[in-house]
User: What shape does this take?
Amino acid sequence: MDDETLERMIKAADPARTPVDAPLTLRQIQLRDSIVAGTYVAHRPATRKDRFRWWKTALPVAVLAACLVAVVVLSVGSIRPQSALALTPPALHFVPTGQTSQQLLQMLERHASGAPAGPARPERGSRTVGWYAQITQDETAGTTAVIAPQVTTIAWASDQSGSIRTVAGKPYWADESGSAIPHAAAPAEGALISEMTFGPGEYEPSVRDEPGTSSKALADFLESAGLTSDGDAADMLDAIGNAFSSWTLTTEQQLTLIKMLLARPDAEILGAATDRAGRAVIGIAADSHRFPGTQKVLLVSGDTGRIVGLETVATSPSEAVPAGAVISYSLWDTPSEP
Assistant: This one.
């Protein structure tokens, strides 16, 4: 996708009347990332026929996957960058472990063999927890934000029939306040947000063919998900996120992907942390050269060796967000509720 096409899609998705040379807002940054990753969904009233027609519009970088990651839908043009940090999920705190790539791989392989998880063979479909923020601006109370996770389950068959179901997760205050969340601030946990079904030949997955287990087969898999030959480690993480909208891979396949990622010189082991589902994880990060000022962070379970999350974090301040702000996150292998 060229820059002109990307800019046109961002403006079409977020048609605010702002100066042409104005820097991107937080919402536009998130729209940009979701368009490039193939996860953007038009938030306009539409019939099922309209949605299907839009769904079939393919991007060069990846086939669009409706409702995959519930990326942020903030309207924060009037919010100061220093306050925007309090309107996004709290950043994860990583503690360096001093592990080399080889040591990390050996640990993950050991834990994976001791605690088998994931399917025995690749499965068509996925279950992803993403998020959006509901912002309230009040002259007296100021600006508050509720993080409202969304759980999206995608299932599809070899005849390209399928379904997408999105329900509300458990909401929480962006500032980690323990006070009760008003009913009007976010959908109730378990509430149905959207549901779509597709007949044979109607569903268009991000990757159609079942992936193999070799490095070559998985490299082809990521290429089908949008990774180009000159892509960097951050682009590889985008492709992984896009591919995970259509497939749930085996642990063996995921360990091979992690090995391929760690072999790249621009991938960095951040250390250990506790993710948003309370799991012990290891973070592997890559700064994006395509989108300077952002970093992709892959989360790998320290217990199962599986890939359980992907986050986008701002690494340098802008007029939209301060450094350290979490722009988006996706979680996998979470409990089946809601």
